[in-house]
Amino acid sequence: MSKKILVLLLLMTLLVGACGKKTEVIPEEQEPPKQEELTETVEEEAEVEEEGPLFPLTGTPAEEEIDTRAVAVMINNHPAARQQSGLSQADVVYEVLAEGDLTRFLAIFQSEKPANIGPIRSARDYYIDLAKGYDSLYIAHGYSPKAHQMLKNGVIDHLNGMQYDGSLFKRSSAKKAPHNSYTTFENIEKGAESNGYEMTTSPEPLPFLTKEEVNELSGDTAEQLTISYSSNQNFVVEYEYDHDAEKYKRFSGGELTEDIEAGAPVLLDNIFIVETNHRVIDDEGRHDIDLTSGGNGYLIQRGVSQEIEWKNVDGRILPYDGSKALGFVPGKTWINIVPSNDIVEMKK
């Protein structure tokens, strides 16, 4: 056999052998992940594992599962009652007109239990309705005629200083009546136990923004705002944004709102302004306030303001953009209910 034929036969043998071997192809979806992808996956899983329980009314981390009922306390805002105790530890505070141009606070506590709370003032029907929205134990000292009837009818679990003055409620010698009634969280828990009130069911959580949503907040600049409940400077509310703390400070009559017990200013993550119809109903200047029909308002967070609509959802006043529910920045919230948005002024 010639050399040329031998060479051709060898080449053909090699080609056949090569064609018989299959090359293993790894499908794209089965390709091994890159090292940086593995690292990201581990970090994401770690974040999920580390995410624990959150307080329902602040959206902030809790050390253990939460099984504490909310407590809603009527706190006096007369100039003679300032500075108050416990306000800086409230999760949510409603500020609403009580008589004439004077506002009163409904402070809702759940994530923190201040040792001393007050001065405590009398109940109004619409404050009771707001407290019910959080299934709160309601604390007040005194009542309007309509509020008294609601409490007698068992509309809400409550403790009132009219029945417990000198026991669960104590008078401070530092202030004059009726601006000197105080209670402690220890006494609230004692009163709840003696009345058989259940105190281990947490309220439904408020809607909160994620970190990414907080970082994407946009709107009109609102670093200073004023709410003039009255031409009397004592009842003019001011908020000032603190860039370092990323929170708002509150002022009444030009004076910083501070917690006299904690020795710290009230610092807020959300200011929610709600415009609704007010009507004076008696010679005392008491109001009938519509908290059910919805309306316009502002949601102010991280130095910016959004015009919003508000709706009453199961007794809670919540912000909306059309049909879309809006979230709060995790932290503390102050809700100002006003008769008109005309009394609100915002500055850059």
From TrEMBL:
Residues 1-18 form the signal peptide. Residues 38-52 have a biased composition (Acidic residues). PROSITE patterns: PROKAR_LIPOPROTEIN. Residues 26-60 are annotated as: Disordered. InterPro entries: DUF3048_C, DUF3048_N, YerB-like_sf. SUPFAM superfamilies: YerB-like (SSF159774). Keywords: Signal. It comes from the Bacteria. Residues 26-37 have a biased composition (Basic and acidic residues). It holds the Pfam family DUF3048_C. Residues 57-197, 226-335 form the DUF3048 domain. This is Lipoprotein YerB. It comes from Bacillus chungangensis.
